[in-house]
């Protein structure tokens, strides 16, 4: 870490004579997307995986319709099973398991998601749709503790031969606790033929196998309660759902269509999920609305606008204009479903689902990180204008792409102003270094609108330095809470061994819920939400002095298997008299996956040019090239063929975390072609130009300074509380004095200080936070002489 020049003491002046600037009451919320098995395998209380036999190789090349099931046979006869689709229980999800009864017992075992967790004293409901053909059958269900192969619950039911699909059900009161549970079904022919079906081949068909824990009244849970509680403890003002990239899907046929996710679960058409696994829609839009109610959050659904993800293989696909009326009507019908009276068509459907009261929808998102082109503008306009004509009080939220700068960002904001949108959804996944350097990013926005919603943001790790960077930028968001009206970290959940994206706010497995340091920062803000921001001035704040970047090295690293040959490697500098000096390296060859090759060059310079030629002789992926002060904590990395060899990306590495310095440039690496690469660096990296075959593809300029000590204040007029926040992201304790225009903590009154402090690199993915906030009582004397610990976030709560 770089040095901090300490200046003592730091005076924080709180202008509490002011009324304060009113800010959004809905500022802090959450974003729930089914990524990292957050919903299926997570919040979804269903314990059986693939109970509908709808998994397939589209979800995953290694998956079949029997994924998650182990089939067996005991006794006479033999196992004869198949997957069929004729006369299904539900045409929307037609696959089911067919078992030909040849004698003996056929068994089916499901271990859920990494084992089925069972808890002593809990009640479980097991159910299945079963059709017996030609003979009556017995279906036995057992809960197994696979840690010792013990049967802990057993029940059986006879199913007569029948043309239909009767639903059978078992209730189990579990006597043991185990993380390695399983559900086992055993199928036996009873030898009793029904005269009506006597000529049929004896078989049994099974579909929609389910196992859920029950509430105290015996009703099956919809959600996994400990995960719900982790959300409830964040006190979110809103919840954005269902995406994210899931909203617009991989292509238009894969878009999230909300009407397919309501009603009886068997009629909710399953599909491939954007994040590489199956979507059952057991948790659909109705359940998302219920979850919002359960955690006290306003719903913020996001719907597609008829364009696919901008990363769609082969290019963005769009809903044909002749089909857009259906998408427009689908959007209007969602609002009616959420808010309409029970006498309306969709309000009646909501009531039939058990919720006659409206859900009170106020916000609606349209699109997600879409390319802002003419196809998008045309389709967005159709939906937006229809919503505003019929429901003018619904706040419609647009989109400006995936990063907080660049072509789509600029075009999205221009379009938003042109359309006079209510709000715009910005996304920003940036490094701590970037956040500390851009705490003014949300300053100076037009109070007349559009307002800003930061729908997805984070700081690229679960380390404490990232949590502190998030605390710092949240202070800037709050300070601008009159124009930045909502914010939600992303992603929310990550299931151990099943993540597609890290870092995440909350990790979990079958037994544990593991909040991260990032989570505790979010909670510290939400628990002390302000209604008004006060003016705050800081004197003698510590100044951050970055490590010098007055030299450069050069290092090549492979991404996957492949061979790269480097030649004509040289670094050019200029001496004080203008003489050009060239340092060279011999030709090098990089082979293998995940290997690094350092040129060993160490050239002192503030300004320099690096040149080399590279050829890939075999392999299919790209590579990365590090340059600058590569042994320090602040240097550059160029990804030559990133994201599946689709982009060139210039990154800046700070605090051990890499981040896009400028928006990605589309392009990849082809084999047996020579590429000439130039890095032109000025002022120790304040200006970097990257050329490929003499074509400029990146032009990075950023001389901003990092601010690693931040203080803000405000009040909550509903609770009568004065709040002061202090972020000390430096490696030194900082002695501070809080100064108030009007006295606080007079007489015997006391306040509280909640502190989250630890090593800058504490905290890792897939682990609970190594420390948690601690709260202590404070007096007036403490406020006049307080020591902010190194790498700490402190929130003072004081009676106004």
TrEMBL record:
Keywords: Hydrolase, Signal. It holds the Pfam family ASD1_dom. One of its GO terms (molecular function) is alpha-L-arabinofuranosidase activity. It is an enzyme of class 3 (hydrolase). It comes from Bifidobacterium felsineum. Residues 455-792 form the Alpha-L-arabinofuranosidase C-terminal domain. GO terms for biological process: L-arabinose metabolic process. PANTHER family: ALPHA-L-ARABINOFURANOSIDASE 1, SECRETED ARABINOSIDASE. This is non-reducing end alpha-L-arabinofuranosidase. It catalyses: Hydrolysis of terminal non-reducing alpha-L-arabinofuranoside residues in alpha-L-arabinosides. InterPro entries: Alpha-L-AF_C, ASD1_cat, Galactose-bd-like_sf, GH, Glycosyl_Hydrolase_51. Belongs to the glycosyl hydrolase 51 family. Its EC number is 3.2.1.55. SMART domains: Alpha-L-AF_C.
